[in-house]
Amino acid sequence: MHEVNKRKIRIERTALVVGALILVGGAWFWTLQILEVLEILELAYG
Amino acid sequence: MDLLFLFEWLDQSALATLSKANGGVFAVVQMFHLLAMAMLGGMVLVGDLRLLGVVLRDLPSELVLQNTQRWFNRALVVMVLSGVFMSSAVAMKLYYNSMFWAKMGALLVGVVFVYAVRRPLLNFSHDTLDPRLLKLVAISSILVWFTVAACGRWIGFS
Fold first, then answer.
1. Which of B18, B47, B81, B131 is 20 to 30 Å apart from B123, CA to CA?
2. Residue of chain B minimizing CA distance to A30
3. What residues have CB less than 8 Å from B68, skipping those under 6 apart?
4. A37 interfacial to chain B (CB closer than 8 Å)
5. CA distance B12 to chain A (A)
């Protein structure tokens, strides 16, 4: 039981860290993509 | 690590000969790729929206996640196999396409996230897990699989 709890806590922490990293990484990636699209639109239409 | 040799090998393989010479075969494989993508996206959405408490609220989330995970696994296998076949037709073009690498990166993150984090976490009773953590996992999952699909579509325009 103790071992199961330890495993649960470990996976919860991992999920928290990885989930947060994905959110930050995703936000960074999509910000770059949107900026690139805006740049292309500006080049095309001034 | 430079993977150019792998793409050169794929470009010269029998798979590439088949995919380049037979438009019909390519189209059928692409159809399976798209069907698998629809299924994978559907399973991700149903599972994660259930975790967020948006859909199927009258069903236990454990049951929904167990069923969607099974079909997710099958869809992923079909997607990867058909994806390798489709890649063989344009292997060298893909190697120099930055959006292809973005997709592969997101796919790697998605697969590791699902099998090393999401599934082991959701094997525990959901009532015993922090609801905020479940929501974080669901949103991260939707984001990463949306990125895989969007980058895949973007390859055709970049």
1. B81
2. B147
3. B43, B44, B46, B47
4. no
5. 33
A22: closest CA of chain B, how far (Å): 6
The single residue listed with the structure tokens 């974080």 is B136
B52 touches chain A (CB under 8 A): no
Where do runs of H (alpha helix) occur along B22-130? Answer: 23-51, 61-89, 91-95, 98-112, 119-122
Quote the ipTM score.
0.85
CB contacts, 8 Å: B113 with chain A: 18, 22
A29: left (phi over 0), alpha (psi -120 to 50) or beta: alpha
**Would you call B147 and A15 a contact, using CB atoms and an 8 Å cutoff?**
no
In this structure, what token pair is assigned to residue A18?
């990885």
Q: What pLDDT, in 10s, does the model give residues B43-95? A: 999 999 999 999 999 999 999 999 999 999 999 999 999 999 999 988 899 99
Quick one: which of B35, B61, B38, B59 has its CA closest to B138?
B61
Number of domains in chain A: 1
CB distance A22–B124 less than 8 Å? no
